[in-house]
Amino acid sequence: MKERPFICHRHLHGAETRNAVGSSRNTALCEADCVRESKIDRSDSSIYWLLESTQQKGIQGHWLALLAACAVGAWIHFVPAQSCFPPLNPGEASLLQPQVLLDTLNAHCTSPGTAWGQTLPDLSLVSVLSQKKKERECCHGSARGHDRHDKEPDGISARKTANGRKMRRKTIAKRILYNGYEGYEETPEDTGARANHVFSQEPAKRRKWRGLNGEDILSCNADYIKFKTKVLGSLQSRSRAELIAMVLSMQREMDSLREQIRSLTACGKLAQTLEELIERSDRWLCGSHEAATPSIPREPERSRPPSHISHPTVLSGRTDERASSEQQGCGQYEVTQTMQTQRNGTLPEQKVITADLLERCNTGTTAQKLTNDLLRSLYDRDCLASHSISGIVNSKRGTPKPALPAHEIQAILRTVQRFFPGKTDSEIKGYIRQKLQNEAKRLRKRPHPADDPLVGSFKEAETTFEH
DNA sequence: AATTCATGGGTAGCACACCA
DNA sequence: TGGTGTGCTACCCATGAATT
Fold first, then answer.
1. Nucleotide closest to residue A432 (CA–C1')
2. Is residue A419 part of a domain?
3. I need a labelling partner for A437 at 20 to 30 A (CA). Which of A52, A272, A301, A404 fits?
4. How many domains does chain A have?
5. What is this structure's pTM?
6. Nucleotide in closest CA–C1' contact with A394
7. Could you check: is the Cβ of residue A365 within 7 Å of any atom of nucleic acid strand C?
8. Domain that holds residue A426
9. Protein CB footprint (7 Å) on chain B nucleotides
10. A288 CB contact with strand B at below 7 Å
């Protein structure tokens, strides 16, 4: 497929115009380029998010969002109100090509004597179609040698790869929902803005689904509203270059803060390890090796026999801390560390998920990856395969499974939300459910050796022989 | 009745190891 | 180096119970 050119000033006007001074058009283009280069990827979800969030920030944010969309070559799906764009069928939502968008923006930027953004039409942005989707629509079944994008019977779009396998594509909605907020690193300001925007526009039913009511939203966003009136008001008077510089600076600051958090986490773990080492060496010096043995940290016991892990009927009857602590035979996290952190007055989830454990998990990619890592760190495969989230069986077909300890599920939810604030409980539970499901499938495909009657009898004979 | 939630099953993409 | 098998996981759909 012929790749559509990347719409930016380099392509349109050449490098020589990049540093031209005094032209508002070039300034605007340069800023679009800045936006493009500032970690905003070309996915439609990012642009959708950008547009959505900037709708709360007045016409300047709107303008920047359009420039960014233009820079990444996104197709804007909009309903023209007082449009200055080429005439469209009245009342119809239309697709706006990046080229047309850019040309129109350029024309308005060069209008003499107008403050930037003032001439921007009142667009009601509906959505941004992905570049690939547009390309697929444009060239469906036409050009030779293009990827085939077949429509499956169920309506799922798919393309065929070189080896004939069909690759499923996420729907646009899915990509926005599941990927949109992961690749984009939110600033606290953005979080507030998004919350404000989302909550103000979401139906009450959806809000309830998120576990929030109007009062909660108001109280939660009171600070943001104050911030908005004070700070954003002053932002309106800033120049575009200043605004972009501020955004980039804030991003750098956030990166730096994240790095510091990682370092501090690592330091905590190091201190803990050192403490344990000192304690052990003291005990060895005192010749009390027997007493020291219980405190020696256990290595992850992935090879632990399944007899330790789960007796569902027993586990399902337990609901309290004791059940949880006994169930730790199913997991591998460190009890002594847990107690230490508890005494140190850390967050509740840190009682379950220690810094050490967190260190082994990938916190930087996606919420799902982090969730999976946490589950794998806390429990072994057999335990995951034999448990469910709630223990409730809604299907007659399904065999009842005991629930994982509720407070541990909560700990996972809070931990994931700490790293991915945009993720709801429901989403993370979905990840957990999927992981449990996958482990169960895996176990069914390849049952544990001890579950195999032959292997079991062999082991039994082996034990008798040894005795 | 519609919606939400939890679950199981099937399918397919991706990464990796292995082999000719 | 390219083809193939395998493991892991994502995605979709169907089902049924609970909830609104």
1. B6
2. yes
3. A301
4. 2
5. 0.34
6. C17
7. no
8. 355-444
9. 3-10, 12-14
10. no
